Amino acid sequence: MSPRLRISLAAVFLVAGIAALLVPLRAPRPAIAASGWTPTYTAGGDLVAPKDYREWIYVTTGMDMSYAPKAAGMEDHSMFDNVFVNPEAYRSFVATGTWPDKTVMVLEAREAGSKGSINKSGHFQTGGVMDLEFHVKDESRFPGKWAFFSYDEASGNASLIPQKASCYSCHAEHAAVDTTFVQFYPTLLPITQKKGTLSQSYLKDEAAK
Amino acid sequence: MSPRLRISLAAVFLVAGIAALLVPLRAPRPAIAASGWTPTYTAGGDLVAPKDYREWIYVTTGMDMSYAPKAAGMEDHSMFDNVFVNPEAYRSFVATGTWPDKTVMVLEAREAGSKGSINKSGHFQTGGVMDLEFHVKDESRFPGKWAFFSYDEASGNASLIPQKASCYSCHAEHAAVDTTFVQFYPTLLPITQKKGTLSQSYLKDEAAK
């Protein structure tokens, strides 16, 4: 190899090395991190519950939502339901209007307080987490692709809710997108309308009104 | 330069270049991204409003919270208030129980719907964003360190709410941490109790009950 070629090669590598070091420093950090979480299960079939779902993407909150009137004696008790979804699934949903494999939706039910501190009316959320449920899409594992799990504080895992429970049929028959109630998610519903991914059963429900 | 030295230099740069390319690929992605957002202002003093606050850290939601009864005629109208905070501030708060400079809290008010789809009671959030406000800590810019801004859809920026507005005095007199109502944030309140960062005025309010 000639001296001039060697000098040129050395210069190219030097520039390449510096460029490679600089490029990641200028790369923009993503607005949404990856959670890095994916569903794993115990030997008994429980879901190993994600602990940092509060740092995932917030979907919406409802209060006292039900398809039945409030139970007798519960008129003074109110509950908020917060919904979260893992960031990777959210990113995919924004792009396609559909949920990818390994989507995990979280439903966190918190007791509502009122007349606390300076608040005189309405309700705020309190430290009492009354219920925690997960809706997991794991296509190769579940016959209907999705399954529900209910958090069990004693074990720290979430127990599988069997397929015959009514949650499954109601979600299948009335949910707007792939068994999830996107009709109640105001920032996600416009995406499904734009991408044309609303379920047939939901469209039928809406048309029947 | 000798031929052997040139070859060695070229080899060193080649290895360095390859190593620099590979290292970022193995770096773990953080659970909470940095939003990379920091407050900036227009020449007129408006806040350039953050658009992707929904992908920040969720704090809590309240419904119809007020220190006064509902206005006449509004009994059938309900509003949810969602609160978010920028990830960098949240990370700092978890570690210290205090808000760092450049904290931005977001209050997003959404109209409550009921009896939509299969829902028969209670309320869910709808697409109607009725109000959007920002509470910004910018220590060198504001006399009291913090200022409130109200989103103006026409300009896409948020207008400064003047210091004489009652929000400022009420926040200063009754908020649990550094003019923010952490008493209503169930996942943040325990942190302040642990770190001992509750405000004197809030502790006085609570003791007076």
What does this structure look like?
Two copies of one chain form a homodimer. Chain A is an alpha+beta fold and 209 residues long. Chain A is elongated. The termini of chain A are far apart. Chain A is built from five helices and seven strands. Chain A has a seven-stranded antiparallel β-sheet with strand order 1-7-6-5-4-3-2. Strand 5 of chain A pairs antiparallel with strand 2 of chain B.
Q: Into which percent range does the helicity of residues of chain A fall?
A: 25-40%
Major β-sheet annotation of chain A:
7 strands, antiparallel
Distance between the termini of chain A: 81 Å
Number of strands of chain A: 7
Q: Give the largest interface.
A: A-B, 68 and 68 residues
Q: Quick check: average pLDDT of chain A?
A: 88
Helix- and strand-based class of chain A? Answer: alpha+beta
- Rg of chain A, nearest Å: 24 Å
Q: What is the strand arrangement across the widest sheet of chain A?
A: 1-7-6-5-4-3-2
What pattern of helices and strands is seen along the backbone of chain A? HEEEHEEEEHHH
Shape of chain A: elongated
How much of the sequence lies in strands of chain A comes to 25-35%
Unreliable segments of 5+ consecutive residues of chain A: 24-30
Secondary structure tally, helices of chain A:
5
Quaternary: homodimer
Brief write-up:
Two copies of one chain form a homodimer. The first copy, chain A, has helices at 3-26, 87-96, 166-174, 189-195, 200-207, and strands at residues 47-48, 57-66, 79-85, 104-113, 121-137, 146-152, 157-160.
